[in-house]
Design a protein that fits this description.
8-stranded mixed β-sheet; Rossmann fold; alpha/beta
Amino acid sequence: MLRSRLLTPILRRTSLITGRSLYSSSVVCHYDKKTSTSKDEMDHFNQLAETWWDVNGPQRILHKMNLLRMDFIQQTLRNHIQLNKDVTNPDDEIYVPGYSLKLLPKQISEQILLEQNLKRDEIQRDQPKLNILDIGCGGGILSESLARLKNVESVKGIDLSTDVLKAANLHKSLDPDIESKISYELTAIEDVPKTEIFDLITMFEILEHVNFPNEVLSSALTHLKPNGWLFISTINRDFVSWFTTIFMGEHVLKIVPIGTHHLDKYIDETEIKDWFKKKPEFEVKDSKGCTYLPFKGWVFSPTPNVGNYFMAIQRVK
């Protein structure tokens, strides 16, 4: 009975990105906004507020995933640095082969990587510090990690839950090194002033909890600077996702609170890519799958079209 009830939405192969934007939601929203989540969703997360920072509590899977989030963000930013962008003297150029370094002897490939990474470090040190918007920041797990980076100037976290923001403010006050770098606000993304623009926007584990994901994405993009980055993560709408996140995660292993996920709100990776193809001023630069292994934690997987995934989008125009 559990399997048949939870699997029903898999058979609905309509696009959630476009489908949920065209029709009114059948649920009552906590906020009187199109992009808001339902009252049931808000009640669920408010109940988790007190244990948000317990690394062994209900949010322990989120704490473990945060390590992979940070890796994805930092690796993406570093890998897309143009090493020879402003070099005028050919002798000063960093060698970037047009083929895999695995084809070269190990000693040579390691030397090339060393030179490239040293150049990336130099470029990052000279770049202006980043101003970041963390949408759906919850209790501030990601916001605090971002604030600890040397190349970050400020982090603004927004959420619709009063209780989790109280937990976020309380926890940031415990670390004076980051307290002044982070600000939290109870607001929806469409209520953020249009004059506020950011170098980097994050939206992790958000789209599967809102009623109109395309409206959330559209609102977020209006706050992104030229050449800025949007980082998102969500879950494909497939059998693997149902089995791992809902059946096993919530009902069998009980490592995720029951009611956290709803399969009919999951969004396929291809749907988001297709959505961005209609917006030429943005490019999807990277997409990676991620899988939770009980005895290892979260790891990247080569299949972003199955289960959980991360995506990086850059404003190019």
